[in-house]
Amino acid sequence: MSDQQTQTTPARRKFLTGATAAATGAALGFPAIVKAQGPTSFRWQSTWPSKDIFHEYALDYAKKVNDMTGGELKIEVLPAGAVVPAFGLLDAVTKGTLDGGHGVLVYHYGKQNALALWGSGPAYGMDANQLLAWHRYGGGRELLQKLYASIGANVVSFPYGPMWTQPLGWFKKPITKVDDFKGMKYRTVGISIDVFTGMGAAVNALPGGEIVPAIDRGLLDGAEFNNQTSDRLLGFPDVSKVCMLQSYHQNAEQFEITFNKTKYDALPDKIKSIIAHAVDAASADLVWKSIDRYSKDYLEMQAKDKVRFYRTPDAILRAQLDAYDKAVDKRKDNPLFVEIAESQKRFAERVVKWDLDTNVRREMAYNHYFGKGAKPAAKKA
Questions:
Q1: What is the pLDDT of residues 312-334, one digit of tens each?
Q2: Would residue 77 count as lying in a domain?
Q3: What is the DSSP letter of 50?
Q4: How many domains does the chain contain in total?
Q5: Is the Cβ–Cβ distance between 36 and 237 less than 8 Å?
Q6: What CATH number is associated with residue 77?
Q7: Rounded distance, CA 256 to CA 248, Å?
Q8: Which of 18, 190, 215, 245: disulfide with 120, CB 3.0–4.6 Å?
Q9: Quick one: CA torsion of 209, 213, 215, 218, rounded to 10 degrees?
C-alpha cells in the first residue's frame, strides 16, 4: 500500500467519526438530532398614528402573514414615529433600520416626483382599483422597480388596498368657488401640492398625525387627509364642522407595503409566496372593512358630531384638472415621469371607457329604494 492509501486526512477522519456516531445512534434507536432554525422576526413601522384605521390595516396584513407562515415569519408593526418620522420610512427600510413598512407611495414624493403618479392626481379618470390593475397588468410594476432602482431604494414594493375618492377636505366654511383657495393655508401631499398651489393656496405637507393640531393652532385654514373613519379618529370634527366631499386631487390612491430587499431576498421561496398572496388577501379585506367602517362613521359624524357634508362644485373639479395638467407639463424634463404618465394614460383610455360603457350607474336604483317617493318597506306579519 502507498502512503496515500494508508494515511487518513483530518477531513476524512471527521467524516468517519460523524458517520460512526450516526450509525451507532441509529442502531441503538436514538432519534437523530437536527438543529432547528428559529422563526424570522421583522420589525416594521407604519406611517400612521396608532389610533388611525390605516395602522389597523398594517396590523391586519402582518397578522395574515404571521398566521399563514405558522410563525416562521413574525412581523411586528410599530406606529409612525416609533423609529423614524412618517416621511422617513423609505430611507429606513432601504438602510435596513426597519425590515419593512406600511404607507403610501406619495410620501416618498421628495425622492422622485414620479412616485406621485401612484395615486396623487386624477389618474386620467381611473379609480384606485383600475390604477392597481394598471400596476399589476399594465406595466406599472416594472416601471416602479425601474423608478426605485434609479433612486437607490433597496426595497421590494407591493402597492395594494385601493382607496376611495378622498374628500376635498375640512374647512371653516363651505368652498363654493375656485377663488376661495387664494391665500388659503392648506394641507395636502405629492403632486397635489402643485395642483392646489396652482389654484392659489399656500400648501403645507404634513403627516396625518400633525394635521388636526395645526388646524387647532390656526396654522391651517383647510386640510385633507383621507376618509370619514380616519378623519374622525384623528379629530377633524373637533376643529371643523364643514367637510367637502369629492375631489380629483387623490382620486385613485392605494397603500404600499415595503420590505428591505436584502432581507426579503434571503427569505425562502415559500415565505415569499405567502407574502405575495397575503398582499392580495389583505387588499380585498381592506376594501370590505373600509366600506363598512367609513359608511358608519359618515352617518355618525352627521348625527353625533354635527358635521355638515357638501359636494365639491364642478367648477372646482374642472380647475383641479387644469391645474394637474399644468403640473404634469412642468415635469417633461423627468423621463421616468413622462414614461409612467403615458403608460397610465394608454391603460386608462381603454379601461375607463369599458367601465363607463359597461357598469350601470347606481343612483337610479338607490333612489328607487331609498329616495323621495320610494315605497316603504313591507311590515312583518
A1: 999 999 999 999 999 999 999 99
A2: yes
A3: T
A4: 1
A5: no
A6: 3.40.190.170
A7: 20
A8: 190
A9: -150
